[in-house]
Q: What sequence folds into this?
């Protein structure tokens, strides 16, 4: 099996029975904020895109690059389609010209031509990517690999059942806006960032230990930020709170926990993998490349500046009535929302500026009033959740009829946020469900989830707790850590006060727990 690095979470897998291209991403994503690093735009994509199969793990724009898929990936390729509850991924790929689809069943092994075996595990909670994320398992001639990319399954048991894995590709770096965009003192941002960075690595070590693959490949991040206003997010300033460590940092941190089997894939790197060995060649010296990371970034920033400028020139649509358009789009969904509206529990305020981000002058303030089921002008009331961003960005979302503001505005980091109290997942879940299909699915999922009764227990320290985390049902016997009276689920970092059962990380999600009686 030959694995060619093609940037970020993307790779080409070649076997004697066929080739698979995974998650090709080249063009900037999320309002021109994210770029692949190292740069992969100069690869021979005409050749790389001539494949038998295409696998797009999910709809996040650093995995689903519509322009690149349209122009560079062979339409003769058969799409290996995850089993998702909505048809959006298939619909968007069909619009790009793909016509051949192999619809997989989640967690089921499928044998393709020539003895090539694949399995896709689909995750389908409202908080998994844009209503879905997935991992791809591949086997040919006794060699097995798992491309986990940035999916976060509760465990990897299903993959272990299929036999020993020789190559494990997984995310290790940040892919979120927290804590950078929050209006907090710098010291607090650094402290929260360090906590998140540590949790990211802890989760990665846990997955690696679960699978025990021969070779581990850090992929799916980090992006780089080339716009001047976002340059500070690159991990080149010695900031221990930066959540975007690169592959060289992964290798260093992995060594601290005894890891010696890490393999870095640069764009153009090639790993030849067998049951007993691996041989990897690179287009340049890996250590030297990352030692000169800032110089590479500065060269990219200069080269990509016209691309960013062209993106910005397309965003402004002053003819759009933002308030009227938001009312038309959001109010019918508020009327239908039960669980998410109750979960948000109050008004959410959008302060819109005259710039392309939070630093300009506020020209309009709009409230999405969840209890009142309406979108209206801000009326000087107290709100628990506030976002500040450029009016042009909201204009553009309306202009392109974007139904997922998480997979556009929030991941762009071109906003600031403030809140009173805990993180509230329902706020972000709602704004990724600005369509009838997504809203109905998410409401149904929460309805089923809230009504489910978790009867099985596990013992953690001096406490007996429900085995499955109330957040996304992670197995707490594997991911749960108790410190005093606080339980932390290491899969997503959520914390619970055990005596009361109260979630300390977000609104809702109470846990069932009781002190274990000592004999």
A:
């Amino acid at each position: 099996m030959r694995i060619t690095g093609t940037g970020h979470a993307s790779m080409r897998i070649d076997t004697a029975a066929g080739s698979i291209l995974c998650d090709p991403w080249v063009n900037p994503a999320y309002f021109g904020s994210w770029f692949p690093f190292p740069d992969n735009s100069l690869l021979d994509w005409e050749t790389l895109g001539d494949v038998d199969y295409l696998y797009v793990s999910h709809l996040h724009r650093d995995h689903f690059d519509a322009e690149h898929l349209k122009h560079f990936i062979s339409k003769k390729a058969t799409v290996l389609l995850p089993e998702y509850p909505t048809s959006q991924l298939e619909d968007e790929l069909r619009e790009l010209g793909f016509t051949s689809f192999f619809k997989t069943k989640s967690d089921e092994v499928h044998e393709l031509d020539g003895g090539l075996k694949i399995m896709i595990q689909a995750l389908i909670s409202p908080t998994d990517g844009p209503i879905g994320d997935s991992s791809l398992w591949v086997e040919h001639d006794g060699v097995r690999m798992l491309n986990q990319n940035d999916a976060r399954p509760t465990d990897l048991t299903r993959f272990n059942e299929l036999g020993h894995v020789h190559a494990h590709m997984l995310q290790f770096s940040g892919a979120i806006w927290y804590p950078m965009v929050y209006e907090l003192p710098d010291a607090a941002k650094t402290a929260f960032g360090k906590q998140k960075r540590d949790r990211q690595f802890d989760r990665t070590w846990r997955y690696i230990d679960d699978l025990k693959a021969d070779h581990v490949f850090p992929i799916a991040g980090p992006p780089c930020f080339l716009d001047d206003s976002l340059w500070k997010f690159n991990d080149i300033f010695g900031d221990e709170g930066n959540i975007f460590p690169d592959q060289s940092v992964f290798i260093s941190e992995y060594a601290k926990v005894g890891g010696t089997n890490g393999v870095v894939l640069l764009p153009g790197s090639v790993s030849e993998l067998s049951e007993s060995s691996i041989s990897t060649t690179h287009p340049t010296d890996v250590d030297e490349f990352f030692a000169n990371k800032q110089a590479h970034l500065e060269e990219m920033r200069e080269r990509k500046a016209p691309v960013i400028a062209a993106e910005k020139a397309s965003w402004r649509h002053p003819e759009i009535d933002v308030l009227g358009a938001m009312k038309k789009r959001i109010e019918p969904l508020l009327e239908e929302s039960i669980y998410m509206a109750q979960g948000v529990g109050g008004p959410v305020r959008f302060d819109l500026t005259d710039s392309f981000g939070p630093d300009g002058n506020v020209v309009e303030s709009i409230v999405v009033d969840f209890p009142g089921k309406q979108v209206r002008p801000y009326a000087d009331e107290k709100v628990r959740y506030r976002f500040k961003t450029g009016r042009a960005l909201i204009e553009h979302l309306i202009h392109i009829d974007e139904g997922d503001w998480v997979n556009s505005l929030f991941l762009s980091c071109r906003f600031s946020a403030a809140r009173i109290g805990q993180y509230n997942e329902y706020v972000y879940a709602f704004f990724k469900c600005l369509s009838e299909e997504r809203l109905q699915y998410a409401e149904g999922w929460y309805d089923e989830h809230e009504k489910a009764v978790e009867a099985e227990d596990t013992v953690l320290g001096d406490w007996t707790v429900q085995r499955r985390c109330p957040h996304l049902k992670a197995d707490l016997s594997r991911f749960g850590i108790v410190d005093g009276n606080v339980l932390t689920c290491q899969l997503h970092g959520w914390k619970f006060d055990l005596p009361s059962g109260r979630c300390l990380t977000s609104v809702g999600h109470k846990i069932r727990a009781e002190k274990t009686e000592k004999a």
In short: The mean pLDDT is 94. The longest strand covers residues 133-140.
